[in-house]
Amino acid sequence: MRIRPGQFTQHAQCLRKSFPALATPVLVWGVLFGCLEVFGRVSPNDGTDAVGVVLVLALLAATRMRMGNRLRELWSGPFGRRWTERLACLDLTLGLDLRREPPVRARLPRPYVWVVGMTACAGIAMWAARDVFPSQAREAVRGVSGLVYLLCVTALWCSLASGTLVTFGGCVHYIRERTPSITRRFGEDTSAMLLGWGVLFVLVPCAVYFPRVTSVYVTLGTFGLMALAFGFPSRRPLLLIWRVSSSEEPPARMNASLVSVGMGACACSLAVLLSVVSGGDRIDAAGAPETTLTALLGLAFGWCAAASCAVVFVGESISLVRHRILDPARPAPTRVAVHGARDASDRRAARWALRRAGMTVTFDPRRHRPSTVPVQLAERSEPSDPFAPVQWPLHVRLDALDDPRLHEALRRRDRVVRRRELRRRLESLFRELNAKRYEHGTGTWIAPHLWFVARLSRDTDEGGAVPTGRSFARAISRAARSHLFEVLDALEIDLIFLEDGVGFRRFARVLSQIFEYYDMFGARRLEDERHFSGLPGVRVLIHDCFQEESERKTAYPEPDYEELGRARVLHVFRDRGGLDEEAPVDLDRTPEWLPSLLPVGV
Q1: SS3 label, residue 4
Q2: Distance between CA 364 and CA 391 in Å, rounded?
Q3: Smallest Cα–Cα separation from 139: which of 48, 44, 73, 74?
Q4: Could you say which of 96, 227, 364, 420 has the lowest number of CB atoms within 10 Å?
């Protein structure tokens, strides 16, 4: 590190001001350092090392209590400011990239790449040198310095103990979140205790009867399953916009799959690193009796990490693949239920005629879905005039299934059925949302057409509140969500925001206007809000979010676009009457929270 002129003087002045308060701790540290140096060299095993570890931790805690203010003063000096500036690159501003235009360069954050790469290299190196840990490494480090050895043991034990507590607690918490029936039946505290004892009942026999390396293989295997789930193809991948908060560089784009896979690789490498450090196949492995306590801590962490990764990664992989399969961006063809087929030849002819028109056919009444269009085979067909009244199921002859006018009528009926289902299911979701009380926020994000948005989401963090009802994938069929994706994608609308105070009936009118615009103009961009003028009680605004401050100032709140990323949002506000268009915006009530991303536990 290069020292600039005057830098040494600044450090000296800072230390001289703090010297009266530092004198006593430095003297105590010097005496204890000498004692710990001798103690670390003569300690027979890590059970005795625990005494030195306790002394080191106690001395650190006492110095922190005595010198808290002085240490903050030292950190606020030139040295601390320099490292604060270097660590500022870890503070990233993230947002969704739903527009993808104009193009943004694709790049991963440099600190993220360094952390993942160094952790992965450390895990690989420790796995290659697993035979020398910990007994041979213990003797080698003690030969250099007993104090350095105790400091290393302290850091290792603290890492193993904290890692064990975090992974065990995370495993229990995830299971409790995925099984709400247990919480409702026994309560939060009792359910957590029962699940904790259940996890211990499974882990203890595994730790006793299986080799230690099994936990590492389980961790790596579950991570591989998670990586495959993230690699599942999707028509609409999740992209993120990022920018270093303290930098003036333009924003860059990254794929959320790469971020999750990299974080999983980092976690697995850390698990390998800390598990291998404890050494041995079992806690009673021959040849390492002096490191039994370290091996026990490593065994506990290895199996808790394996259990946590297995539960979380497998559960999220299943959920992720399910949501990718139910991706609304994939086309959902019209599904026709044919009734009255007399034999196999009739079914074959009907299936062939409708499949050539791009439709799917079913003859089993038990497989009917809410978005299925019924057709009844008859001797005489009903009129196919689009303006003539039609009774469903539609009566048609078998040889009339090739008629293009019939296909158009079936598609129109399919759109009507999907829109009715969408309105009905959204209304039930809003009932669940309104049944709960929220202390913060001004409205709700609505995006059932995006696979990576799990459910209705508040625009402000509620501090760990329960999810706002069922997920879109469970409540709404993929056909209805696919139709909404087709409509909003054609109109270039990415998200819908509904302000509190706007009832669902008024929002349903806005949704009807959106469908009407699509029926009239097709794949045409919805440029402004003029099509929604005249709707009672609501005011619809369309905001283009490109991480730039909008020049239009209205009396309606406009979200912080830098938090949102790049998107085109349709806002449905309460009508504020004759307010001035140039009235100032209440910035404290602007929606700023992202929708609930990545379907967790649904």
Answers
A1: coil
A2: 21
A3: 44
A4: 364
